[in-house]
Amino acid sequence: MIAYATLGSNDLPKATEFYDAILGEVGIGQMWSTEGFVGYGLAMDKPMLGICKPHDGQAASVGNGTMIALALQAPEQVHKVHAKALALGGKDEGAPGPRGETGFYCGYFRDPDGNKLNAFCMVPPSKD
Fold first, then answer.
1. Beta bridge partners of 6
2. Is residue 117 part of a domain?
3. How many independent structural domains does the chain possess?
4. What is the mean pLDDT of each run of 10 residues along the chain (128 residues)?
5. Quick one: pLDDT at residue 127?
6. For residues 81 and 90, is the Cβ–Cβ distance under 8 A?
7. Bridge partners of 80?
8. Residue 27, exposed/middle/buried by CB under 10 A (0-12, 13-18, 19+)?
9. 58 part of a folded domain
10. How far is CA 41 from the centre of its chain?
11. Pairwise CA distance, residues 90 & 36, whole Å
12. pLDDT given at position 1
């Protein structure tokens, strides 16, 4: 249903370095770029993430309640992406681990511009 989501940045070169590194951890790279926009994804017919300077020329700001979720394949990838984000200046918003009893496994972080992201995967719920 979702084709792409965009996050604003006030420092596109720094944001590009950040997203190149964290998305590179799971094999996702740049699909295209312009002076004010960088698009990441696996293919043009798959969901993508864009990082951009706001079109209106105003400063980028963080939306309260806005978050982008990155679907990954395994808890190890969640840990790698979360750790890479923090190593690159991101802020921790919730360490990787299971949430609830549905098999939802995630780690939350903010990028250097303050945008909130969630790296997650689904794992079979434990049967204790």
1. 50
2. yes
3. 1
4. 89 97 96 94 93 93 90 96 97 96 94 96 79
5. 65
6. no
7. none
8. exposed
9. no
10. 11
11. 21
12. 63
